[in-house]
Amino acid sequence: MSQSPASVPAPRRAYDYAKWAILSAVYESGAVITVTGLGRELGVGRTSARDALVRLECEGLVTLVPGRGAVVNEFSLHQVEDILEARVLVENHTAGRSFAARQALLPAVECVHEEMRQRRREQDTAGFTDADRRFHELIVDAADNSVLSAVYRTLREQQTLFTSTMVRGRTDRMDAAIAEHARIVEALRGDDAEAFCSVVNEHLRWSIALARESH
Fold it and tell me: Transmembrane stretches, by residue range (predicted)?
């Protein structure tokens, strides 16, 4: 059972709201989020609001500026390409081992893929971005390498804001992403590890091309 808002700890409530607001463009790139303003908006203390902003800085969504607050980050195409190229290395390396664990992996991936469809129907940008991230994390985690999983989570956190910006208000891009992920799911249902690895690599190359088109 999900927690009611009143039962959610204040730091988590502040973090969840601020992250949702950034990914949904309530706070756009370049906007300043202050500790006082966030605390007042949610009815939480300064410490809880500050902790939320520190956590968001660790995820690469904001930069803390002394005397100002947290500035919502912007990303250059070069930064995004660097992140995606690093993803290629991790995901291509883990794909074969993940395929070997496909019996346990497939139901979880199918569930998250369906969630992507639901978020698209709701035009929920933040939810869609989160589901996309979890889809790929499931596949990387199935390779059972905790170091690579940790590296991958850092990469995805750094990419979150750009992904959200790229699909916001663009149901055509959401549809294209859903179709791309459907190819991965279908390959995971088969018995050809090489074909699965190829589809994963093609998807990553598609992501790089889309990033260049979107910038």
Answer: none
Q: What does pTM read for this prediction?
A: 0.76
Which of 51-55, 75-79, 134-138 has the lowest average pLDDT? Answer: 75-79
pLDDT over 60 (residue 4): no
Task: Please name which of 14, 189, 39, 180 lies closest in space to residue 113, comparing C-alpha atoms.
Answer: 180
pLDDT digits (tens, 9 = 90+) for 134-144: 999 999 999 99
pLDDT tens sequence across 177-197: 999 999 999 999 999 999 999
For the chain, domains (ranges, CATH) are: 5-72 (1.10.10.10), 77-214 (1.20.120.530)
If we measure between CA atoms, which residue out of 83, 66, 62 comes closest to residue 19?
Answer: 62
